[in-house]
């Protein structure tokens, strides 16, 4: 399973970087989203895949019967999802305002408007 996730992470990174190097701003935003999803999967995979229960002790117990799942990667991924949503929303609003002002979504043509 970890090999499959490693391949998916590589595909997401590759597709994200490819789209981010395009001249179109919409493709850049989509590439940013794919790259963040790849980073989330990387954190998830680095946390280790285990078939154990949640790290919650029943009342009166002092020790876990088996090694529980680590909650830290899950908390990091949830935080990264929220941050990624905020960055994507900001990028979409910035793109909309730029498109309304300049009239194009081509990055090379935007350079011509600086003069």
TrEMBL record:
What is the superkingdom listed in this entry's lineage?
A: Bacteria
Query: What is the membrane topology noted in the UniProt record heading this document?
Result: Multi-pass membrane protein
Can you say where in the cell this protein is located?
Answer: Cell membrane
Q: What is the species listed in this Swiss-Prot or TrEMBL entry? A: Pontiella desulfatans
InterPro entries associated with the record: CPA3_antiporter_subunitC (IPR050601), NUOK/Mnh_C1-like (IPR039428)
The record's keywords, sorted A to Z, are:
Cell membrane, Membrane, Transmembrane, Transmembrane helix
Q: What is this protein called?
A: Na(+)/H(+) antiporter subunit C
Q: Which GO cellular component terms, listed alphabetically, does the Swiss-Prot or TrEMBL entry include?
A: plasma membrane
Question: What transmembrane ranges does the database entry give?
Answer: 6-21, 28-49, 75-96
> What family is reported?
Belongs to the CPA3 antiporters (TC 2.A.63) subunit C family.
């Amino acid at each position: 399973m970890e090999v499959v996730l490693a391949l998916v992470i590589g595909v997401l990174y590759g597709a994200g970087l490819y789209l981010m190097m395009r001249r179109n701003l919409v493709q850049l935003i989509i590439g940013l989203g794919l790259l963040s999803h790849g980073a989330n999967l990387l954190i998830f995979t680095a946390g280790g895949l285990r078939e154990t229960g949640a790290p919650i002790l029943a009342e009166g117990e002092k020790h876990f019967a088996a090694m529980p799942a680590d909650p830290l990667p899950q908390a990091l991924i949830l935080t990264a999802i929220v941050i990624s949503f905020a960055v994507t929303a900001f990028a979409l609003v910035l793109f909309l305002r730029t498109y309304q002002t300049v009239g194009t979504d081509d990055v090379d043509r935007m350079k011509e408007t600086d003069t």
